[in-house]
Amino acid sequence: MENPPHYMFLKGIPLLPNFHKEELMAKLQDEVEFQDKDVILVTYPKSGTHWMIDILSLIYSKGDPTWVKSASSWKRSPWIEHLNSLEVIKTKADPRLFTSHLPIHLFPKSDFISKAKVIYVARNPKDVLVSFYNFVHELPIFQSFSNFYGLPSLLPNSLLVLYGSWFDHVKGWLPLNDSKNFLFLTYEELHQDLKVSVEKICQFLDKDLSEEEISSVIENASFQVMKNHMLENNEAIIRENVEPFKVMVLRKGICGEWKNYFTVTQMETFNNIYQENMKGLGQNLFPWDQC
Ligand code: PPS
Known about the structure:
Elements: E1 8-10, E2 13-15, H1 22-31, E3 39-43, H2 49-60, H3 66-70, H4 73-76, H5 85-91, E4 97-100, E5 117-122, H6 125-136, H7 145-150, H8 166-173, E6 182-186, H9 187-192, H10 194-204, H11 211-220, H12 223-232, H13 264-278
Parallel strand pairs: 3-4, 3-5, 5-6
Antiparallel strand pairs: 1-2
Bound molecules: 3'-phosphate-adenosine-5'-phosphate sulfate (PPS).
3'-phosphate-adenosine-5'-phosphate sulfate is lined by residues 43, 45-51, 127, 131, 134, 221-223, 226, 249-253, 257.
């Protein structure tokens, strides 16, 4: 199968030329300086990025939903790898929330000497794959799940999936888990107990919210309420720069949907590749290891 024609490659990672200019990416790595008060959310795509952006926005507004209702996620927590981000990173007003899907080897080097905080959210890669598939299924190249799965999607050394392999992404960021400025969370634990996760995030960010404020964060970060806000924001439309992707970010929002998509053979193949690549890693960190 041929490479999707819309990718450009940077240090082995497929990116979108509409969004990721090569010149910007070089400057991003060498010139960008984060501030100590910055909070950077890092995810592999389809891992709950928008969910966490809303949770963080709501924490910073003490549960008041006005901000999440009135400004898009792109404005509240801009992706650092997109277009005019250099200026945005320099000038963004508080709260200085940023987002990135970049693997660690394309990330600004300066972050590792600043005290900026990094929150990494990971999700069961099988559900990431299903979410990704549904996101892009309008492209002829991904017409059936088998075709999409047949690509070396998410697999090690993949050159065909936006932002590269899931394994490389997670394994690249995981070593930072020892740092006090790094918080590792999973999509599944947000699902399991959002209150506990919100409290953990508040503690990490030194944010002191009352019980009532935390309840409001939880309520406004629920799937249905977020969807309503997004529709009010007009976010669920086809974006000018993302054609032919449809921006339907809030689709189902559940765990374990992969079971409706994978054949037994696909599951076994995937499990073998997973075991090979994640051997000895993440004991108790990855809830999907138990299912
Ligand atoms: S993107 O396009 O890469 O930024 O997508 P991302 O935001 O990382 O992930 C999209 C998936 O996250 C789900 N989502 C949620 N699940 C539960 N609760 C809430 N509040 C929530 N918000 C977003 C969203 O539905 C996508 O998953 P799928 O499986 O496709 O439904």
